[in-house]
Amino acid sequence: MEVSVLIKLAVSLALGLLLGLERERTEASVAGIRTFALISLMGTICGLLGLQFGGWVVATGLAALAVLLVIANFARVKAGDIDPGLTTEFAATLLYGVGAYLAYGQTSVAVALGGTIALLLHLKKPMHKLVASIGEKHIKAIMRFVLVALVILPLLPNQDYGPYGAFNPFKTWLFVVLVVGLSLGGYMIYQFVGGKAGTLLNGILGGLISSTATTISQARQSAEAGSARWPVALIIMVASTVLYARVLVLIAIIAMEKFLQLGPPLAVMTATCGIIVAAGFRLSGKHPARMTPPQNPAELKSALILGALYAVIRLAAAAAKEHFGSGGGTGCITISNKLTV
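and the corresponding structure tokens:
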């Protein structure tokens, strides 16, 4: 028990020093490296005491921290040091909560939270620059994606309905989300990275999520904007290469006993796609062509049509299996499964 408590206190101290180092570097006058370390330790100790005496100890510690931060800011204002920013104060309060959580929860979660806070504090300038570069069209596209992914998708039931139980609202809409998300992600990558780096990152992203949805979204964007075909073809080939590599890794993790049987053909496909991608990048350097961004990076119409097509294919697969046996629906089942790969 003593060892685990000492480990929690050591982790708390390390997180406090990490955040304090970042704040000290920015010359934050409210709290520096020592103060942040003490705040983190205070949260952990209050959390440990709360295990014995109740949660009021943690609440009291939080109230005491809030009073101290108010007093510190009041003293700064009286001294003429007026800084309207509240980032340091919020970071200190959140760090206290992370320190308290260490006493109750998992150490890995607390470490991840502390690291995330440190990154958010450190990336102030790049994040402000990114926000400043986002235009009205970008905001509308992002909000449209938020609507389909974070508002509608969680509300849909993940159950099978209709004839043959072939219609699953959640899975069908998930495909719509994939197409819209990949279109938006590719658009953003090209806006802020551009060139060959944008092509490579876009293809990797698509291969990790869904190579089929990547192919569809890139083809749609190219048709909309009348873009050159080189960037689109390269993105699709990179996504396909990543797909085969991803399947190899999954087989090695999940079904190692089948790896010697399935691995060599997939390795050949991965290497072949890699050679094609390398040749494509080499040719694109001799004949440079930049993809024109679409007017609507998160356009829903084509994504909804493809979602409907996905539902129809699932229905056809289920009907074929029902009427012709398990072999009759194999092709349709393969196609419907492929749409999510």
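(Above: one complete record from the training split.) The mean pLDDT is 77.
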